[in-house]
Amino acid sequence: MKRKWNCGNIVYSYCTEADLSDIASMLAKQNVCEYLFFGPNKEEDTLAYFSPLINSISESLKANNIPDMHVFTIREKDSGVFIGQCALLPIEFTNGNYLIGYQIDDTQWRKGYGSAACEFLTYFAFSVLSAFRITGDCAEGNIGSEKTMIKAGFKPEGQQKRYWSKNGKWHDRLLFGLTTEDISEEKLEILRSKYD
Ligand SMILES: CC(C)(COP(=O)(O)OP(=O)(O)OC[C@H]1O[C@@H](n2cnc3c(N)ncnc32)[C@H](O)[C@@H]1OP(=O)(O)O)[C@@H](O)C(=O)NCCC(=O)NCCS
């Protein structure tokens, strides 16, 4: 099983322990977590959440199996500079349906990395995992997140009222989806040609 995918000067690699301090620094930031249902996190909370995920991914890869969880670190290929992370998490009882997620570090915003991450997850879900559907969500008002999904072809699927409560404020949840019926074989072929 491959561990890294390159696209221009971006590399997506299955998350390892070596990535944890960069991830913890990012998720400790107020602005990064403004629209997330969690955080900002203390370092120990981030480590407690990610360590079992990373161990499970590492065990699967060692056995040459496809992991159940797909958590990737995004870095600049040449410099190794941390950009962020993205993930595809299986949705229970719906085999082949994955929830997407990504966080880009605030030093890297508005450079196209969020859109690139969404496109990578689309490629990975449909071409590597043979998904039938990917599901996305964001808090209402998270314009950057909404735009990255729409640009990748996701369709809006509705709005759930008062879905998250954070810091005493209610947030609606916006839903998005992309199914194999929405994405043509030509588009998938273009995506496949982008990653090596
Ligand atoms: C949301 C997020 C992923 C966007 O990443 P990014 O790398 O800045 O996105 P891109 O550079 O690909 O921008 C995509 C589009 O969104 C727009 N955009 C990005 N951030 C924006 C913001 N805060 N407000 C309005 N528009 C924004 C960009 O201008 C671009 O628009 P365009 O295509 O019309 O030019 C990033 O801000 C982030 O990680 N935020 C914190 C975590 C988070 O909210 N993750 C999503 C959880 S659902």
UniProtKB/TrEMBL annotation:
<dbReference type="Pfam" id="PF13302">
    <property type="entry name" value="Acetyltransf_3"/>
</dbReference>
<keyword id="KW-0808">Transferase</keyword>
<dbReference type="InterPro" id="IPR051531">
    <property type="entry name" value="N-acetyltransferase"/>
</dbReference>
<protein>
    <submittedName>
        <fullName>GNAT family N-acetyltransferase</fullName>
    </submittedName>
</protein>
<feature type="domain" description="N-acetyltransferase">
    <location>
        <begin position="10"/>
        <end position="181"/>
    </location>
</feature>
<dbReference type="InterPro" id="IPR000182">
    <property type="entry name" value="GNAT_dom"/>
</dbReference>
<dbReference type="GO" id="GO:0016747">
    <property type="term" value="F:acyltransferase activity, transferring groups other than amino-acyl groups"/>
</dbReference>
<dbReference type="InterPro" id="IPR016181">
    <property type="entry name" value="Acyl_CoA_acyltransferase"/>
</dbReference>
